[in-house]
Amino acid sequence: xxxxxxxxxxxxxxxxxxxxxxxxxxxxxxxxxxxxxxxxxxxxxxxxxxxxxxxxxxxxxxxxxxxxxxxxxxxxxxxxxxxxxxxxxxxxxxxxxxxxxxxxxxxxxxxxxxxxxxxxxxxxxxxxxxxxxxxxxxxxxxxxxxxxxxxxxxxxxxxxxxxxxxxxxxxxxxxxxxxxxxxxxxxxxxxxxxxxxxxxxxxxxxxxxxxxxxxxxxxxxxxxxxxxxxxxxxxxxxxxxxxxxxxxxxxxxxxxxxxxxxxxxxxxxxxxxxxxxxxxxxxxxxxxxxxxxxxxxxx
Length: 299
Known about the structure:
- This protein has one helix at 2-16; strands at residues 21-33, 41-54, 57-64, 71-81, 84-89, 104-107, 115-118, 132-139, 144-149, 154-160, 163-169, 175-182, 185-192, 195-204, 207-212, 217-223, 226-233, 265-273, 279-285, 290-298.
- The protein is mainly β.
């Protein structure tokens, strides 16, 4: 594996001198939220994506540019050599929660190493590394693709009779997904470490309906560029914190913070594309009786 990674690095460096095409794209938005009975707030977001292509090698670099400084948000490189595709994720995202909040969790309560931590509900407690290299092979087995990454995870995926399937074998628990269209209904099923989730989507009298195993229901009215989406969000039950460690080697992995109970609520979002090229959206939520106005553009 190390030799293959070294070979990929050499071929990637050689390709930079022949970079033939560079594409620039991005998004920007500004949002105003009246926050119901709480003080209103205005937020901003701007992102850039640079894509460079030379032959069968592609480099993509993403950046968040609305902060005080230019911040890298993604960096990857992929190349194809015959039936083999090598992909390198070169950006290590901050996977742990770094935002303080009023959510307090006592880890290892009653023990000598008990600790009080604060952060966003459900977020990861300890940092993990997510950079890596994946090597994929288009195998002549019913159009299947076999991939292995530098962590030893093996993924087999492909499409058979209109059904797309993928199975990943890993130490933290296998993941199997299947999706396709059956009798006009879009079906997606995922089983991760023994837990199954699913979603169903169909169109009735011009209304697109989606139902998920979480009991979330979404109805979309209108045509592209002028839509209204009504969503019913189910209640969230209290979930205790999961104690992990900095290596992620225990049964709790890197750990997650407590998830507080939340009552069910509904949202109504109206979106319209303007002749100026921007999109204006208004979203009302019964969770806090708030109205959010958002203007965005993609280029």
